[in-house]
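Regression report. Comparing outputs from two consecutive submissions.

Submission 1:
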Amino acid sequence: MTIKIVELYRDYLAVNGDVGNVFVLARRMRLAGIDVEEIQVNEGDDLPEGADIVTIGSGPGSAVRAIAPELQRHAETLQSWAAAGVPMIAVGGGFHLFGRTVSFGEAGTVQGAGVFPMDTDANVARVRTDAFAADSNYGLLVGTENHSSESVVDGGTAVPLGTVRNGRGNRVAPNGARHEGIVVNEAVGTHLGGPVLVLNPRLTDHIIEVATTRRGETYTKNAEHESIDRVVDLARTVLIDKANLG
């Protein structure tokens, strides 16, 4: 059985090394003996008939505006995949485009895919956090943060990906809570760069486990995974120490 990773609009939305998210998903599955097919969907392409994992990366406002009509064209399919429990990882500009709207002030507002019950103001002061960190159900998530946006997430079925320990994340809630990202079923949206899945193996393995279980596959890690994770731990330690997170 082959696990299909569908990557959306790499030509527009991969400016922060987001291709690394696809690489690490494929690499960890192949090390476990699982066949993987990497499918790139570019401007003008149709979506494949099905997907086991969907990824979309980040890009500048010009790329978000340019590719928004493509996301609208595929909105119904992407929403149905998310509702069915297909794991997704959407980062930065792609995270915003998976919401309902992205506002650029005088440059106008674009419609997103509606996977996430969320609206984003992409016309605020830029924030850069070299050691961005958030507590989550997947442990302490670490990476970088670089965006000029504030995202407002509805309640209900959507929950935050995590609670910010260092950085800004989404818009600060009226009660002062500092949340980061969003989770709807198994679709994850985040501002975390790094790339996020390279630096956070627990989240990566969760996505893989969901995808493989849905297809009747078993994901079993081995010594090669452990060797990779030791190297990742060193990189994580640098960021954690830089943010004085202890």
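Submission 2:
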Amino acid sequence: MTFPASSPRRTVSRFTVLGALVALTGCSGGETKVMTLAELSDRSLVFALADVDDAETPDAQGAHRFTASYTVSPDGPCSRFADDVTATFNGQPMTLVPGGASDVGGRSEACENSRVYFNFDPAAWGREPVEDIVVQLQDASSTVRLVVKNAKAKRKFTFQGEGTPDKLRVGQSYDFLWEPSTEVPGPVEALLLREGGRAPGVLSVTQNGNTSTVAIAAGTPQANHILTLGADLEGVVGECTGVASCSGAIYHSQDYVLSVVP
């Protein structure tokens, strides 16, 4: 079963909120100022854990990534990390994006967020126990520490009941369990894209805790499809020091390549 690489991306719209972490945001005059972590302490730190299992491009850049981004001050200059800033994710080095003024898209007064990110191995996380995520930024002036409770976990939707997820029947409903089962995401959304189709259709989803029931409508074309399930949940902050506040979300989407049959 082959889907063209040019077919539309089926990511649930909620993922666009997480994309705001790296958005270009208007700032005062497009000026860049190198700032220490102490000088950034009045800003907020926004994080996002993206866990996107895409059948078309499973190794897409940023598909399995944790990002922590400083907010942009509407009245101040665009921040840029000083050269001595370092960052770790559970003790492992993170990638720094210094930030600063940007003219991308012709926006001469835009700021690119100062941020750090860590690309994780989904297979490794699937074998490892659930743990807190501990992010630490340091320079000569200050230490910033963020702890997100039980966030280091490989999320997945697991097919439940009789049959297999590669062959679904029209007019039937199917259950999928979100794991870790201790979490309740939501709401869960389901999109169904027909092979060669131009746009995905939205399926009816009934959610009971971490179990979602997806209905395959009677009029669904009998053909090859990709079913995408997606949901997010708020990250639970256990510690936040060195900044004004910390907040963020965890997002997971997962593709099932399947046939819809009578």
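Expected: both submissions complete independently.
Actual: both completed, but the second showed a warning that disappeared on reload.
Relevant detail on submission 2: The helical segments are 15-19, 122-127.
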